[in-house]
Inverse folding.
C-alpha cells in the first residue's frame, strides 16, 4: 500500500470517507422499510413496545461504545485507519443480522454494526474538518450528511423491493446488501492521505507539510496559503502541548464551553425528534391512514426530500451562518411538531387492536387531518435537512482544539448516540402510552434547542479551525455578537506575500521540537 497513489482533491477525499456515513444510513432504513412488513412481523412474532424499541435502539447502544473507543484509537493510529478499524465491526454485525435466528441475535448484530457507526460518525467529520479549507469546510462535512441520506434512501428501496420476496429471505437479502458499501469503503481508504494535523500532532512534520501542500496547493510547499496555515497549526499545537493533559483538559481554562457546545449540539439533533420520524415514519403514516405499498412509497418520498434539501444546503452552507440555521431551524421544527401533535390530539380515533394489526400504532386520523399530518411530517424533514441535520455535524467537528478534536468529537457523538438510544427505546412505548403527546414534547425540546443555540453557540463559519479557539477563550464576545467570516488567515497570507516581494526567503519551516514533544510515539504505519 505504500506505493498506492493518494487522492488529494478534498471533494473526492470526502466522497470516499463519507461512505462511512452511508453505512449509518443503510442501517437506519434497513429497519424502517422492514418493520411493517408481514415477513418481519411473522418471523419476530410482531414485536411491539419495549421489544421493538430494543431492536430499534440496539444500533445506538453499539454506537455509544464505538464513539467512546474512537477518540483514543484515532489519536493512536490516525483518523483514516480508525475508520478502517470500524469497518471490521460492520462486517461482523452484518453477518450476524443476515444469519439471525430471533430477536436476540438481531439485537446483537445491530449492536456490532453500531460500534462501527459510532467510530465512523465521530471520526469521519474529524478527518474532513482537518483536511478542508476554511471557505469550504461546511460543504466538505455536509457530504457526510448527504452520504447518510443516500444510504437511507438506497437501503429503503432495497428493503421495499425485498418486501416482495416471500419468507425470511425478504429481510435477510436486504440486510445482506449492507456488505457492499463497507467493502467499497475498505477499498477506497488506502488511497486517502492522512490528516496533516494528525501527522503534526504525532511529530511527523515533513509528512504533515507535504500532505498539507498536496491538499491545499497542488504540492507546492512554498505557497503562501500553505506557509500561513502551517505556521498557524504549529503555533496552536505548540501552545496546546503546554496545557493540562488527560480528561481535565476538556473542562479547564474555558474548555468546558467547547465541551458543552460540541456535546449539546449533537444531543439537540436527536432531541429535535426528526430522527424518530426517520426511524418510524411508517408508524406515523399508519396513524395518517396510509398502509401497504402506499405507506412504503410515501415514506420513501420523505427520504428523497431529505436528500434534495440537504443538497441545496451544500451550495449555501459556507455562505450562511451556523447560528442562524441552528436557531431558526429548531423553531421551524417546533412548529411542525406542534401542528402534527395538535392534529393527532384533536382528530384521532382510538384503535385498541392496532392500526392494520400493528400493535405499535393505536390511534388514527382520516381525511383532511391525515393530509395535514403527512404534509407537516414532510415539512419537518425539509426544515431538518436544511438546518440541524448537516449543521450539527459541522459545528461539533469545528469547536474542538487540535489536541482534543478526536476525543472531543467522540464525546459529542456519545451525546448523539445516547439520546438516539434513549429515543429509539422510548418512541414505540410512547406511541402506545402518550400517543400524540410525543410530538408536543419534541416541539418543546426544539424551542429549548433554539434558546441555547442563540445564547451559547458562537459563529464559526468562515474561520480556520485554529481561529475558532479564540471564540471560546477569555475575553471572547458573547455568542450572539459573533459574525461569520473575518478570518485572520487572509492577512497572514498577505503578510507572506509582502515578505516574498521584499526578497525574503519564505518557506514552510520544520520545527524539530514538535517531534521531540509529540504526545506519544508516532505510529509507523503503512501509508
Amino acid at each position: 500500500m505504500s506505493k498506492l497513489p493518494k487522492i488529494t482533491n478534498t471533494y473526492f477525499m470526502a466522497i470516499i470517507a463519507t461512505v462511512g456515513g452511508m453505512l449509518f444510513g443503510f442501517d437506519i432504513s434497513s429497519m424502517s422499510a422492514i418493520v411493517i412488513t408481514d415477513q418481519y412481523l411473522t418471523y419476530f412474532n410482531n414485536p411491539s413496545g419495549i421489544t421493538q424499541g430494543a431492536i430499534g435502539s440496539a444500533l445506538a447502544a453499539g454506537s455509544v461504545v464505538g464513539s467512546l473507543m474512537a477518540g483514543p484509537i484515532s489519536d493512536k493510529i490516525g483518523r483514516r485507519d480508525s475508520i478502517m478499524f470500524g469497518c471490521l465491526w460492520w462486517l461482523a454485525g452484518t453477518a450476524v443480522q443476515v444469519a439471525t435466528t430471533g430477536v436476540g441475535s438481531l439485537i446483537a448484530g445491530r449492536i456490532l454494526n453500531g460500534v462501527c457507526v459510532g467510530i465512523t460518525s465521530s471520526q469521519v467529520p474529524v478527518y474532513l474538518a482537518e483536511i478542508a479549507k476554511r471557505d469550504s469546510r461546511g460543504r466538505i462535512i455536509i457530504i457526510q450528511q448527504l452520504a447518510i441520506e443516500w444510504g437511507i434512501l438506497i437501503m429503503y428501496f432495497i428493503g421495499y423491493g425485498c418486501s416482495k420476496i416471500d419468507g425470511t429471505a425478504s429481510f435477510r437479502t436486504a440486510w445482506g446488501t449492507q456488505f457492499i458499501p463497507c467493502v467499497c469503503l475498505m477499498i477506497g481508504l488506502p488511497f486517502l492521505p492522512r490528516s496533516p494535523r494528525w501527522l503534526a500532532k504525532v511529530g511527523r512534520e515533513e509528512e504533515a507539510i507535504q500532505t498539507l501542500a498536496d491538499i491545499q496547493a497542488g504540492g507546492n510547499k512554498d505557497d503562501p496559503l500553505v506557509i500561513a496555515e502551517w505556521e498557524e497549526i504549529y503555533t496552536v499545537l505548540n501552545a496546546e502541548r503546554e496545557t493540562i493533559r488527560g480528561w481535565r483538559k476538556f473542562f479547564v481554562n474555558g474548555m468546558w464551553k467547547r465541551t458543552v457546545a460540541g456535546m449539546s449540539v449533537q444531543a439537540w439533533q436527536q432531541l429535535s425528534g426528526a430522527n424518530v420520524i426517520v426511524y418510524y415514519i411508517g408508524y406515523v403514516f399508519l396513524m395518517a391512514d396510509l398502509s401497504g405499498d402506499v405507506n412504503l412509497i410515501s415514506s420513501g418520498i420523505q427520504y428523497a426530500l431529505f436528500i434534495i434539501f440537504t443538497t441545496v444546503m451544500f451550495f449555501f452552507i459556507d455562505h450562511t451562518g451556523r447560528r442562524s440555521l441552528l436557531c431558526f431551524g429548531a423553531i421551524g421544527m417546533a412548529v411542525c411538531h406542534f401542528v402534527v401533535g395538535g392534529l393527532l390530539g384533536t382528530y384521532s380515533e382510538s384503535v385498541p387492536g392496532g392500526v392494520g394489526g400493528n400493535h405499535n400504532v393505536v390511534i388514527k386520523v382520516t381525511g383532511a387531518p391525515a393530509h395535514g399530518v403527512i404534509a407537516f411530517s414532510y415539512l419537518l424533514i425539509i426544515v431538518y435537512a436544511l438546518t440541524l441535520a448537516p449543521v450539527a455535524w459541522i459545528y461539533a467537528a469545528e469547536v474542538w482544539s487540535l489536541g482534543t478534536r478526536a476525543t472531543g468529537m467522540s464525546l459529542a457523538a456519545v451525546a448523539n448516540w445516547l439520546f438516539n438510544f434513549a429515543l429509539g427505546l422510548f418512541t414505540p412505548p410512547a406511541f402506545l402510552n402518550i400517543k400524540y403527546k410525543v410530538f408536543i414534547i419534541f416541539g418543546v425540546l426544539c424551542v429549548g434547542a433554539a434558546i441555547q443555540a442563540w445564547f451559547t453557540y458562537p459563529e464559526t463559519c468562515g474561520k480556520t479551525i485554529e481561529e475558532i479557539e479564540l471564540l471560546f477563550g477569555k475575553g471572547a464576545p458573547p455568542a450572539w455578537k459573533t459574525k461569520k467570516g473575518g478570518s485572520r488567515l487572509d492577512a497572514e497570507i498577505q503578510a507572506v506575500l509582502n515578505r516574498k516581494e521584499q526578497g525574503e526567503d519564505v518557506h514552510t519551516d520544520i520545527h524539530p521540537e514538535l517531534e521531540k514533544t509529540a504526545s506519544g510515539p508516532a505510529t509507523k504505519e503503512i501509508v
